[in-house]
Every structure is written in structure tokens, then in C-alpha cells.
Design goal:
CATH topology of the largest domain in chain A: MetI-like fold
Structural class of chain B: mainly alpha
Oligomer: heterodimer
Protein name (chain A): ABC transporter permease
Structural class of chain A: mainly alpha
Number of domains of chain A: 2
Strand content of chain B: under 5%
Helix content of chain A: over 70%
Number of helices of chain B: 10
Membrane topology (chain A): Multi-pass membrane protein
Radius of gyration of chain A: 26 Å
Order of helices and strands of chain A: HHHHHHHHHHHHHH
Number of helices of chain A: 14
Largest sheet of chain A: none
Family (chain A): Belongs to the binding-protein-dependent transport system permease family.
CATH class of chain B: Mainly Alpha
Shape of chain B: elongated
Helix content of chain B: over 70%
Largest interface: A-B, 49 and 43 residues
Number of domains of chain B: 1
Largest sheet of chain B: none
CATH topology of chain B: MetI-like fold
Distance between the termini of chain B: 12 Å
CATH superfamily of chain B: MetI-like
Transmembrane segments (chain A): 27-45, 120-143, 155-183, 203-224, 261-287, 307-333
Order of helices and strands of chain B: HHHHHHHHHH
Shape of chain A: flat
CATH architecture of the largest domain in chain A: Orthogonal Bundle
CATH class of the largest domain in chain A: Mainly Alpha
Radius of gyration of chain B: 22 Å
Keywords (chain A): Cell membrane, Membrane, Transmembrane, Transmembrane helix, Transport
Chain lengths: 344, 271
């Protein structure tokens, strides 16, 4: 009896369809997550002790007759059901209406746009710096495992991983601003100039210390992770085989190490965006850098709920977008995802 | 001395130091941090090893009190978070595919919101002070541990001895108590101890920004944000020492967690 040869399975979908489907799935997930965050924010707003009428009219609301207040409540839809209010709110959000900030007396969207450009500069700089530095430190540590350099890198990372970011910032401030006098204490632009007039030189000058703070503390996790991954690779059988054939340390790293440790490092670095947001909030506080972090603290202290919720939503969208990009990069770099169904 | 004994010594040393700090903090009374302008702004010396602040209060005593309050807040939030993690992780592991997907999704949601911003939002709504911090931390810190618990229980559930016990007709409760719990709890315990330093750091950060403890409560965050005002006067010691102490406490907890982990891990404990 002959077994009929199975015809080759038809070639799976073309590459771009796989990628498209993959990114579509991820985008759907992103939307679902944003929906959840918006519900959480809305529930939190609902339970907040702030009465919207009181917040907008201020102390004078006591002098308004109760019918007027009732009328206002009706007008603003405060008497509607929970779901109705949520739908109204989300519809407004989608149209770009995030409410008006009480502290800045401007639409929340405008405040966020203005502050975010400053924050983006700070976070982008320190993100790239800490990524490159941490990655190189991890490689150096792993290639010199057990030597003094490695011990020093490990000690540095473990210590900095447990150091409070704001404390590191204060120490930098003590050394560079108070003792050496190289930098002023605070403000990303000269106090007499408005933000628009500040030159790029000024901005960079005031960016150095906060970015340094975030980079110094940010290298820890990626360096330790990269070091461990590279050590795993160097301990593997294929590395041993390559060594047996006479490959040197550098060749081993170039041919086998680099590609294997790059992917996890990329994921990890994109995953730290959420933490970076928190870190930049602290760094902006210490160095009076006028970014989103400073605005969120201000909003929290002065009970500016629209701004607070707006920033929370925006920050999560930013973090999710970061994770989304990481997923896409993964698909582009990792042959197992890129080739997708074709291999199976 | 082998590594196991060394690890034991490390672990007991750090546990002892942490308990000592906590006990010392709760025995110190208001009297110890009395305002005394005769000895204000002193540099660190033998009498005041951390120096004194603008009001002549001894910085070492303030630091110890702050640390002990941090440890108490950290403990409460860790226990709360741990309970949530235990429930979520177990539910995800044994509740079927739907529950699993749900829990995983929830974890993604919580991890996606920048933690500090979420904490600010919660502390704004619950109210400032310890209760706001604790509620916020319980709501945010359970995610990592829930993943650990889920993975652990999933793995145990499909292990040979659990399958054997089930086919011998043992009840679910028996299996959970005799087979799953003894294997899962060391991981859980280690996860709890490693969560501790995070809660302490976040409490200090939140307080530093003005959302946690109020300025008259002892707290490292309070001390450091105060020190920011006196930096330009050259008072470096009010910032350096308390921050360094916080770092040491956090490191100690990390070491404690790591050493307990390597003691419990059968592959590592005899290295």
C-alpha cells in the first residue's frame, strides 16, 4: 500500500498580511486597555470628594439658591445615570474635549501638549542614554565576568536600583549646583524669559541635571538583565562549540551574543517607559523642570481633577504606545514572528 | 563555612537590623525630636552622628522614626497586596481560560498606568496621609506577585504527584493543602519580601512630592523634601544621611529576599 504523499501545504499568507494581522491584534488590545483605563479613571472621579459645582463656582456656591444649583446640576447632566455620564464623557474625550484645567485656566489638552513637549525631551534623552549605557555596561560586565570591572558594575547597579531617584537628584544638586555652582537650582528656562523665548542652548543647559539623574538610575535594570542574558549565551553549548573551534571572546560576542541579547533588551527598555514617567515626575519636581510631572503634582495638590485625570489618561496612552512599538519592533526583528505561519 | 550557613547569617543579620530599626522607632517619643535652637544646623559629629536640622532636631532620631513608620506602612501594603495577588493568581490558575484571560488583562491594565501617577490619583481621592498611600499601594503592587503565584500554581497543578493524588480520589482541599500550598508558599513569601522595598521607596517618593505623609509626621520623604529648602545654605547632611539610610534598608530587604529564595530553592540551597 502506498501512502499518498501529502501535497505541500500552500504557502502561508504573504508576509505583510501576517504583520498586518499581528499589529491589528496588538492595536485591538491597546484599545481595550485604554477603555479599561478610562473606566477606572471615571470611577475614581465619581468617588472623588470634589463636587463639580463647588470646584467650578468656588466658595460662592453657598450663596446660590438651591434651585439654581439644582438647575446647574440638571444642565451639566450630573443627575444622569452612571453609564450615561460615562458615554457623554468619553464622547467628549474622543472629540478632544478634556475639560478645562483649574490651575492653568486653559483647556487640559493645551496644557498637556505644552508640558509634554518639555517632558518628552527629558524622557527621550534619558531613555536613550540609559538604554545605550546600560546595554554596554551589561556587555562589559558579562565579557569580564568575575573581574573587578564586573564586580564594580554589579555593585553599582544593585545599589542604584535601591536608591530613591529623588535622593540621587538631590545629591547631584548638592554637588553640581551648590558646591561647584555650574548649574542654577531649578527652572528649565531663565526666570525672566517666557518658555517660548528660551533658546535651545538654555533648554539643554537646564536639561542636563534631570536627564543625568534619570540616566544614572535607569541603567541598573537593563545592565543587570543584559549581563545575565549574555552570560547565559556564553555558557551555552553553541558558544562552547564556537570556543572549541577557536573563536575569541569578541568574535563569540559578535556572532552569537549580540543578536541574542538585543531583543530582550529592547523589550525591557520599552517596558521601562511607565517607570520613566514616575521617575521624571520626581526629577521634574526637584529641578523645577516645567513638564508633565510638575503639572501632575500641581494638579494633585491644588485639586485640579480634570488635569489630573487628563494626564493619567495621556500617560497610560503613552506607555501603551511604547509597548505597542516594542511589539512591532519585535515582529520586525525576530524571524520567528516575522516568518510567522510559514515555518509551522 | 559553606554558602548555606553564610546565607543564613546574612538573612538573620538583615532581619535583626530591620526589627531593631522598627523597635527603636516605636520606642522613641516626641521628646527625642524636641526643637532646640541652641544646637541647630550642626554638622555630623559624635554627639549627633547625622547632624541636626534647622530646628536643632537630631537627624539620626528623625531618620530612625521615619524609617520605622515606612516599614509599618510598607508591611501593611505588602500584606494587602499579597492577599490580592494570592487570590488573583490562584483564580487565574484554576478558574479556567476565561478567568485567566480576565486576570491577565487586568494585570496589563494596572501595569500600563504609570504607578506614581496612579498613586497620586488614588491618594487625591482617598485623602492624603497613610491611608491614601496604603490603599494606592495595595491596588497597584499586586501584579507581579500575582503572575508568580499563577505560574507556580499552574505548574504544580499539572505535576505528576498532583495528578496521581487526584486519580487516587483525594479531594481538592486535600490536594490544595498537602501538595500545592507547601510548594507554592516559599515563592509567595519571597515575592512578599521583595515587594517590601518597592513599597517603601514608593511611599517615600509619594511623600516627597507632597501626597503621602503630612509634613509633621516623621518620614524620609518629608525629611528630604525639607532638605531641598536648605540646600542653598550648604546643608548637605540633612539630605545625604537619611537618603543613604533608606537605601541601606531597601538593600537589606532585597538581600533578605534573595537569601531566603536561595535557601528554599532546592537547586540553589546546596551550592
Amino acid at each position: 500500500m502506498t501512502i499518498p504523499l501529502k501535497p505541500n501545504p500552500p504557502l502561508a499568507l504573504p508576509r505583510f498580511v501576517i504583520l498586518l494581522r499581528y499589529s491589528g491584534k496588538k492595536a485591538l488590545r491597546l484599545l481595550l486597555l485604554m477603555f479599561a483605563v478610562s473606566v477606572v479613571c471615571f470611577v475614581l472621579m465619581k468617588f472623588s470628594p470634589i463636587d463639580p459645582i463647588e470646584a467650578y463656582i468656588g466658595g460662592e456656591h453657598a450663596s446660590l439658591p438651591p434651585e439654581q444649583i439644582e438647575h446647574l446640576r440638571e444642565y451639566w447632566g450630573l443627575n444622569d445615570g452612571f453609564a450615561v455620564r460615562y458615554v457623554k464623557w468619553i464622547r467628549g474625550l474622543l472629540e478632544g474635549n478634556m475639560g478645562t484645567s483649574i490651575v492653568y485656566n486653559q483647556p487640559v489638552a493645551d496644557v498637556i501638549a505644552e508640558k509634554f513637549s518639555a517632558s518628552l525631551l527629558l524622557m527621550g534623552t534619558s531613555w536613550a542614554l540609559s538604554g545605550i549605557l546600560g546595554f554596554s555596561m551589561g556587555i562589559i560586565g558579562a565579557l569580564n565576568r568575575g573581574k573587578l570591572v564586573d564586580k564594580f558594575i554589579k555593585l553599582y547597579c544593585l545599589t542604584l536600583a535601591s536608591a530613591p531617584i529623588f535622593w540621587v537628584g538631590i545629591l547631584l544638586l548638592i554637588v553640581f549646583s551648590v558646591w561647584l555652582g555650574w548649574f542654577p537650582i531649578g527652572l528649565s528656562a531663565p526666570i525672566d524669559a517666557t518658555a517660548a523665548e528660551a533658546t535651545w542652548g538654555d533648554r539643554l543647559y537646564h536639561l542636563i541635571l534631570p536627564a543625568l539623574t534619570l540616566s544614572l538610575t535607569g541603567v541598573a535594570s537593563i545592565a543587570l538583565h543584559t549581563r545575565q542574558k549574555l552570560i547565559d549565551v556564553l555558557d551555552s553549548d553553541y558558544a562552547l562549540f564556537a570556543k572549541a573551534r577557536g573563536a575569541g571572546k569578541w568574535l563569540l560576542f559578535k556572532r552569537h551574543g549580540f543578536k541574542n541579547i538585543l531583543l530582550p533588551a529592547i523589550t525591557l527598555q520599552f517596558g521601562t517607559i511607565a517607570e520613566l514617567f514616575g521617575g521624571s515626575t520626581l526629577a521634574e519636581g526637584i529641578f523645577s523642570y516645567p513638564g508633565l510631572g510638575k503639572a501632575v503634582v500641581e494638579a494633585g495638590i491644588r485639586a485640579d481633577l480634570p488635569l489630573l485625570v487628563g494626564i493619567a489618561l495621556f500617560a497610560s496612552a503613552f506607555v501603551f504606545a511604547g509597548n505597542f512599538i516594542a511589539n512591532l519592533l519585535y515582529a520586525a526583528v525576530d524571524p520567528r514572528i516575522r516568518e510567522g505561519a510559514r515555518r509551522i | 563555612m559553606n554558602r548555606r550557613q553564610k546565607t543564613l547569617i546574612y538573612a538573620s543579620f538583615s532581619a535583626f537590623l530591620l526589627i531593631a530599626v522598627m523597635a527603636a522607632g516605636s520606642f522613641l517619643t516626641e521628646e527625642a525630636t524636641r526643637v532646640d535652637f541652641a544646637r541647630k544646623n550642626l554638622l555630623p559629629s559624635l554627639g549627633h552622628i547625622y547632624g541636626t536640622d534647622w530646628f536643632g532636631r537630631d537627624m539620626f532620631i528623625r531618620t530612625v522614626k521615619g524609617l520605622s513608620l515606612s516599614i509599618v506602612i510598607g508591611a501593611l501594603s505588602t500584606i494587602g497586596s499579597g492577599l490580592i495577588a494570592l487570590m488573583m493568581g490562584t483564580a487565574a490558575a484554576i478558574g479556567g481560560r476565561r478567568v485567566d484571560a480576565c486576570v491577565n488583562w487586568l494585570i496589563d491594565v494596572v501595569m500600563g498606568v504609570p504607578m506614581l501617577i496612579f498613586l497620586i490619583l488614588v491618594s487625591f481621592i482617598v485623602g492624603k496621609g497613610p491611608q491614601g498611600i496604603i490603599v494606592g499601594m495595595i491596588l497597584t503592587h499586586w501584579t507581579y506577585l500575582a503572575r508568580v503565584v499563577r505560574a507556580e500554581v499552574l505548574q504544580l497543578k499539572s505535576s505528576q504527584y498532583v495528578i496521581a493524588a487526584r486519580s487516587m480520589g483525594k479531594s481538592n482541599a486535600y490536594i490544595a493543602l498537602r501538595h500545592i500550598l507547601p510548594h507554592a508558599y516559599p515563592q509567595f513569601l519571597v515575592g512578599l519580601i521583595l515587594m517590601f522595598p518597592h513599597t517603601i521607596l514608593h511611599e517615600a517618593s509619594l511623600t516627597f512630592l507632597g501626597f503621602g505623609l503630612s509634613p509633621h509626621q516623621p518620614g524620609i520623604g518629608v525629611i528630604l523634601s525639607e532638605s531641598l529648602n536648605y540646600l542653598s545654605a550648604g546643608q548637605w547632611w540633612t539630605a545625604l544621611m537619611p537618603g543613604l539610610s533608606l537605601l541601606v534598608i531597601v538593600r537589606l530587604f532585597d538581600l533578605l529576599g534573595d537569601s531566603i529564595q536561595s535557601l528554599y530553592n532546592p537547586y540553589k540551597s546546596h551550592e
